[in-house]
């Protein structure tokens, strides 16, 4: 066991170092220009771009959904020999699906999933997962052309830090219960909880910044309550223990599906929703996480 753990650590460090070295070979300013957005450097040499649907006014059960809660599309590029691997999750309305999908396919990218995350959303929103490998600039150009066929807001000029928004929510108890430190962004308190074991796609490591980590978001709804959503990343044998734990915590399961095509191990993504006392919901989320193989903090 100790030898296996040591091997995983060494392999993980080697992957990060290799990713950082390859990242130095990519001119991210050219990718920024091609995509029309400014990316953020993430661990492992990953460059991630936010695609929030701030133009949409979506409500679920009377709760106005902030982009950071469930409308935050993104794409991320991970350096690979001969170019980069791209993964992303684009938020679309029903009428935008066909033109965006067509343009992505014409540009040589792959569609790896199309599904809902929320139930009873008004208007309905859909989530298209995209993947590919090749020249990062050309892939960025294709993604930009596809997004232009939707109403996804374009980034105007250099990206500026989003203004801080006060959270009407006590977050320290949530950190303690979930065992990780969350971060406030766009009026939402977000948690990212990585899985314990490495995930690969076509032989490439898929770090949390590429969408392989559990995501849990809390949006305050007043008087200590919060609307929560996000997704758990689980193996087949973890799916039903997880959803039983969620239901025991009065948390609704809204979708179960895949995001990737050739990942190892095979993974499923379980989406959820609730609007209740934030501490109570955090305990329900913690009980669900305990049914999965998550990294120890």
Characterise the protein shown here.
The chain has helices spanning 2-23, 28-35, 67-70, 97-106, 136-147, 172-178, 236-248, 278-289; strands spanning 40-41, 47-52, 59-60, 63-64, 72-80, 83-92, 110-115, 126-134, 183-185, 188-193, 200-201, 204-205, 214-222, 225-234, 252-257, 263-264, 268-277. The strands form four sheets. It has a six-stranded antiparallel β-sheet with strand order 1-2-5-6-8-7. A six-stranded antiparallel β-sheet has the order 9-10-13-14-17-15. A three-stranded antiparallel β-sheet has the order 12-11-16, with no helix packed on it. The protein is an alpha+beta fold and 297 residues long. The chain is globular, with a radius of gyration of 19 Å. Helix 6 (172-178) runs parallel beside helix 8 (278-289) and helix 7 (236-248) packs antiparallel against helix 8.
Task: Give the key terms.
single chain; 297 residues; alpha+beta; Alpha-Beta Plaits; 6-stranded antiparallel sheet; disordered N terminus
Ordered list of secondary-structure elements with their pairings:
Blueprint: H1 2-23, H2 28-35, E1 40-41, E2 47-52, E3 59-60, E4 63-64, H3 67-70, E5 72-80, E6 83-92, H4 97-106, E7 110-115, E8 126-134, H5 136-147, H6 172-178, E9 183-185, E10 188-193, E11 200-201, E12 204-205, E13 214-222, E14 225-234, H7 236-248, E15 252-257, E16 263-264, E17 268-277, H8 278-289
Antiparallel strand pairs: 1-2, 2-5, 3-4, 5-6, 6-8, 7-8, 9-10, 10-13, 11-12, 11-16, 13-14, 14-17, 15-17
Helix pairs in contact: 2-5, 4-5, 6-8, 7-8
């Amino acid at each position: 066991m100790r030898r296996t753990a040591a091997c995983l650590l060494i392999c993980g460090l080697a992957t990060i170092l290799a990713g950082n070295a390859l990242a130095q070979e990519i001119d991210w300013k050219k990718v920024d220009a091609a995509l029309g957005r400014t990316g953020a450097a993430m661990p492992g040499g990953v460059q991630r771009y936010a695609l929030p649907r701030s133009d949409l006014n979506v409500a679920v059960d009377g709760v106005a959904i902030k982009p950071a809660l469930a409308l935050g599309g993104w794409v991320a590029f991970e350096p690979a020999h001969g170019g980069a691997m791209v993964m992303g999750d684009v938020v679309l309305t029903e009428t935008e699906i066909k033109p965006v999908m067509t343009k992505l396919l014409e540009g040589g990218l792959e569609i790896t999933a199309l599904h809902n995350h929320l139930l009873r959303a008004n208007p309905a929103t859909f989530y298209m997962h995209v993947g590919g490998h090749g020249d990062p600039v050309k892939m960025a150009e294709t993604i930009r052309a596809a997004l232009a066929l939707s109403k996804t807001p374009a980034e105007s000029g250099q990206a500026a830090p989003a203004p801080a928004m006060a959270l009407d929510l006590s977050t320290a108890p949530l950190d303690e219960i979930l065992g990780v430190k969350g971060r406030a962004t766009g009026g939402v308190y977000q948690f990212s909880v990585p899985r314990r074991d490495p995930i690969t796609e076509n032989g490439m490591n898929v770090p949390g910044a590429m969408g392989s980590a559990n995501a849990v978001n809390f949006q305050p709804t007043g008087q200590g309550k919060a609307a929560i959503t996000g997704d758990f990343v689980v193996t087949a044998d973890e799916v039903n223990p997880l959803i039983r734990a969620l239901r025991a915590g009065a948390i609704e399961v809204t979708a179960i599906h895949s995001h990737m095509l050739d990942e190892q191990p095979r993974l499923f993504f379980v989406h959820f929703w609730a609007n209740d006392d934030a501490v109570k919901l955090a305990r329900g989320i913690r009980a669900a996480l305990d049914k999965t193989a998550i990294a120890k903090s």
